[in-house]
Queue: 3 jobs
Job 1
Amino acid sequence: MSIKQGGFAVGNLNLQKYFLPKNLKRDLPASLVVFLVALPLCLGIALASGAPLFAGVLTGIIGGVVVGSLSGSQLSVAGPAAGLTVIVLNAITSLGAYETFLLALVLAGIFQILLGILKAGTIANYFPSAVIEGMLAAIGIILIMKQFPHAVGYDADFEGDEGFNQADEHNSFSGVLGALSKINYGAVIISIVSLALMIYWPKFKKMAMVPAPLLVVLAGIALSLAFKNTGLALLDKQFVHIPVVNSSTEFFALFKTADFSSIGNKQVWITAFTIAVVASLETLLSLEAVDKIDPIKRISPTNRELVAQGIGNITSGLLGGLPMTAVIVRSSANVNSGARTKTSAVVHGLLLLISLLFIPVLINLIPLSCLAAILLMTGYKLARIALFKHMWHQGLSQFIPFVVTIAAVVLTDLLIGVGIGMLVGIFYILRTNLRNPYFYQITKNGDKKVIRIKLAEEVSFLNKAAIQITLTSLPSGTDVIIDGSNSRYIDPDVLEIIHNYKHNAYTKGIVVQLLEMKEKYDVPPLKELMYNPN
């Protein structure tokens, strides 16, 4: 499949580059990590959404195999989204039947394809870098806070929740405190051993061919079996619970399909549009964040991603799944595990399918505490101290939006938090623009002072106040040169201020000369503004 930046052109799919030995030796271990991370999240999100557990796993499979194959991103991983659980739960309740909700999901997928065709993915180019960095750090902090209860015992909140207020009547802080009163020392031992393996096993170069997460899972199963019938025994709710399928008939009976007879229901269309918008925003945010931590610094085609997600959601709706997005937790685990291509995402989807069909009993032996250790390491890498130091050295205009985004995401949820961070980030962008619409130079021509004002490349309406204040404060009896030779665009309001100033300046003994300034400027195309937002 040929990749056209910003689009989704389809050509010949070059599979060779995805199956090179140098890529496979990184992608296959990474796919195992993503599989282990995704499995409990898929189940938890399905439970919180009021949907069958099978729907969560099915969505993970489709997100991996279908979206992973069609996406232009090499490292993002799609699956059921925690940010949509409330929308899904309310939709299933209000629409009256799960099959009717599935119709809304199919329509949402169609809307996403249309958004991709209309190139709505370009909105991702306007996310400030400091806000994306803040979102990544916030997700890291949330992972640490949300996984701590599973690492030391048990948490009634669903796996994958990213919101501050939880369904179990706790919040992120009280959930941590509550976990301390429910400590299971067997789970604590498994978590400590798992963390030690994650940290130290990769240091043994000769042994590192066996992925540390696989060793963590095997050690977790072995310890949980050893603790059985002792005071350290784990409770049933402290293990993964994947549906056990005993026959092909039972497996195919789990699938559901959309009820197209409800196509005229207005509420179905409202739900579909809501899912499409929220899922698309989460996807674009995750995609931007993954590109930020990609060690090779590749740029993912956003419009193609919207189309891939749309096809994934249509498939999910037709088979009985849940809405999906590109998910930052799974994607960041993928990056931190060393993945290089989309093979990792596709294989993780296949592993979910294999686990459901062939080894559900074995999968149900995995303690949640050892999977929590894997996510704790992922959280630590996302919220590392070095990132805070780096953002501080970038200056307050970067550090403040970064910190505000972290606090907002941790204390609300992903979309609201990023929205607050965006407002602060935009404030600093506007503040910078207001200060930099021109270059100011003072020279002398004999005894007379000459002030040269060279306008910037883009002079927008936002610069109007700054230019007006500067012009009215120029001293009497000077020569003023306003140079527009570098400008591709000057807003009509700014041009009016300049011409009015020239007309009236003689009253203060000021001589104004305009250099290379047009009477009118055409608005630059959107794609040019995208790469030159000032």
Job 2
Amino acid sequence: MAKANDTLNLIPIPEKITFKEGAFSFSEKTQIYLPKEFESDLKPYINEKVKADLGVSVQILTEKKKGAQIIFVIVKDGFTQDGAYTLDVSPKEIKVTSNSYAGLFYGFQTLRQLMPVNNGTAFEIPAVRIEDSPRFDWRGLMIDVSRHFQSKEFIMKQIDVIAAYKLNKFHWHLTDDQGWRVEIKKYALLTEKGAWRADRTGIAWWSRDAATADEPKTVGGFYTQDDIREVLEYARIRNVEVIPEIDVPGHSKALVASYPMLSCLDDQEFEVAVGGKAPDNALCPSKETTYEFLTDVVAEIAALFPTQYIHLGGDECNKSNWKKCPHCSKMMADEKLNDYEELQSYFMGRMNSIVNDHGKKMIGWDEILSGKGAKGATIMAWRRNRFTPELDAPRGGYPTIMTSYEDVYISQVQGPSILEPEGPRVVLPLSKVYNSEPMPSGLSMKEQELVLGTEMCLWAEFTPTESHAEYMLYPRTIAQSELAWSRPENKDWQRFQKNLPRHFLRLERNGVNYSKSMYSVYASYAIDELHGNVRVLMETETDGNEIRYTLNGKDPDLNSDLCTGMVTANIRSLLKAGLFNKDGKLLGKITEIRLR
């Protein structure tokens, strides 16, 4: 694998690479052959990507003729995993072989990465044989569009990017306290009222005052069912399964603002949350009208989304109103429920049945394990430390998706907090994402088989714009591709970080914003009272580059002092530090700290 590390720049790294002699010469005259069964889907996609990547048009054949040099072949045997493929490059031809559409699609993604980043009409592809298959079946990304609505075009753009890195699940967090984003035809108020909130732009998320009834509600948006069908078709061609989330019984302020009778607080009116905390945001689990309403919602969602899954949340439910609710007291007595956790599991159990009745499987966050659980559901295990759902769920027989908030919650900033946009104070750098391990230790082989895979989550409290959202997504989502696809023994942080600049060029070519926080300098210091000075420690997460700094207020350059260890400085000096490559190029932002 060493030679591949140095020359091919492939992400995610394939399972096996064998180098051969020579190279394949690509030109505008190169012809591509596709099986006719994939003509309607794969042919326009390949045409689009070759044109966008290389600036050339090539002839794509669906009838076997002599002369095709790039050949896509479907076989019945030889592959045991969905998405597995071989890519065989020789001087005479390139052959992509699989037993599925997914495998041909992924073979093409690897072939794209072997081609030039920028336009080229003639070039060579090294002769190589790649045998590849995914580690996990579930390779996901979640984007929250409730806190800040994003356009369907933005969603499709991200699906296009993640598909190129072999991620195959897009989890669409469509509802929460701050907005309901999916059209439900039977209940028009969900989008007429629930999709809009009062404007608090410019006010920190956790410092926002609640909306009043007479304020204009101008911030928001929603997707029509036709919008969603367009996204679904776009995703289907890219082998991405779209999983909708309707978050209940908590995180439902936009829902109860639209239909207050679903709350425990009879006859009370609510407003869609504007940010921060959202009290009174839970549905009543003890009114039959709640289940009748949600049955109708699930019916429309199930008919709209072809996925086998519907995510129903179940997380962070504030039960304070349940404890004051006569309906809940009666329900607990009638059903012999011991506590409010069992009341929530009663709710999730009924919802699980409703989802099953529509031919779907329910997914929930790991809080649905509490009480009596929700047998038959799939668990997204996000909590850690005093909670151990990553172990409890598979040990309890639940199919489990690993979504650790410590490793893959990319709403957390990714560089020194003084250089990053507003966000949680916890730093989740690229290297920590890459070096995390989705499969927890301590599971038996049988329990490990219940781990479906891993998913990265972008919660949207702090991402009001498309550009900001992309900044948080990339390159950490590219690291997610190796977590989910590649075998642990093939992962290598040194190789990955060296390969990324080429992938940054790919993102730039496609108009995708990304962060360079991996090139930031982390600086910390302590006052040395004995000697009347300051001791400064500077670090970065990448290797092979140089930290250069100044203490006189000037921006550092290639001629500035080189950091080789602990730095001693005068108190109240202005430290400026940057990371430079060997050619003297500043790679990231300059860190600036007053030492006092």
Job 3
Amino acid sequence: MTPLLSVRDLRVGFGRDHKANEVVKGVSFDLNAGETLAIVGESGSGKSVTALSINRLVDFGGGRITSGSIKLTRSDGSSLDVVRANERTLLGIRGRDVGMIFQEPMTSLNPVHTIGAQISEAFRLSKGLTGAAAHRASLEVLGRVRIPDAKSRLDYYPHQLSGGMRQRVMIAMALASSPRLLIADEPTTALDVTVQAQIMALLAELRAETGMSMIFITHDIGLVAGIADRIMVMQNGVAVEQNDTGAVLDDPQHEYTRHLLRAVPHFTSGKAVRSDGTRQETIDPIVKVDDLVVRFPVGRAWFGPKGAIHAVDGVSFDLMPGETLAIVGESGCGKSTTARALLNLNTPHRGQIQAGSGHSRRPVQMVFQDPFASLNPRLDVEALLAEPAIANGQRPDADLRERMHFLLDRVGLPRDALTRYPHQFSGGQRQRLCIARALMLNPDVVVLDEAVSALDVSVQARVLELLVDLQREFGLAYLFISHDMAVVERIAHRIAVMFAGQIVEIGDARAVLADPQHSYTKRLIAAVPAIERRKQHFAVDMTQVPSLVRPPGYEPPPALWHDNGQDHRVRLEETP
């Protein structure tokens, strides 16, 4: 059988001397119709450049295919050598024959057009739909990727959606063209595990229905274990191993493949929870949040807003010194809004937030998800580290410089890093810089908002070890926000599960993960991808996430709770 795609000795370079600056070095593989190939590797391995070469989008990023061939079998049976095709021909295959889902949706969506306009454009260009037909198709495809309030979301702009919501819009746009080959470049990185499982199930369903082939690029081997037919492992631009999925996972031949498999955090339903740190109820909490409510007005009527988004509704928890509380839940559930309210970046509608105990009122510090966006590219490391201290009234003297040296040592960076700029560091090193900067004011509490989700698995493991070491050394309390349950299992002492703006289950990490009580927590844990679960097939769940938009004056009914043993509380679910 003729492969849908045949790549031979692909070499891609960047810069003035393309051959001297090769980042893809002789990659070859075949992809049959209806087959899924997973390309796995860490940042800089060349996996994304390989994918971008298949539809020649690499040309627009300064890259050039220096040698090799990419043969694509078209719908009429003809063979096209993509390497030698002209731009007019390439425009005909992009979207229709080869669809693409990019990793970063905010840079891929047009900020000045609504979501509806952009999805409708995809239907117009690929299927000729306009007007009401394009509108109906847009609504249907948004529903398939589980976007709540799809009708109203069509009028939203990209900045009005969470990162996970934006990624779902990107996936919807790619599916609009019904491509024969879909290239998915880290398409679920920003998604929580329940939506991730649904997207993976949806992609598997579409593949079964249409015979669509897929190239799935990821650093998470556990994610592709259940969907990929074959796996190709890349390191430094070379395909070091490729074979059937079972063979790669069960009997890896290359040392780098074995290294990747060791670095992947395996979810164990609570067995890997940290054993250090026993919660002492006699100590005053370092953070106490009571009945926190955060709302955002939406729409305008004659006498005020038409309603409000109940982003956070009645959230209460406390955080002890030296403890890690993880907040988990779907994108848009309110976990980041809760964290931002703690730092006074969002104004609460009502509720009490107390941070610090006794005479200690040190500023709460935050480490954000994207380290590159968090660091000013115009400032060197010395200026970046000094910035929070100077803003807090400290003088740029020898003591401050010694503090910088001390923290650089603790996060594993050389002292000469002070003279370097953010672009001169890797992603993992930049996140270490962000952690060092957060510790400059010697805080009691650090909020980590998806702080390791953008890192490769081996770098992620080292940063998690660093966070645990720093917590033990300085007695730090962490509010750890994440959608990765395997990571949460390894760092959290306690877990709060959020759904639709409310905490539905909270307590000891081992108790919550090993014995989940709320229906949403059960779905969350059941959806965690793992190598051991590769034979588990998820069904597409079309259950709609409850809308957070409420009419003016609406107040939710008071919460009723059930104690499921010591330090494990569950919100009672409303009967339909």
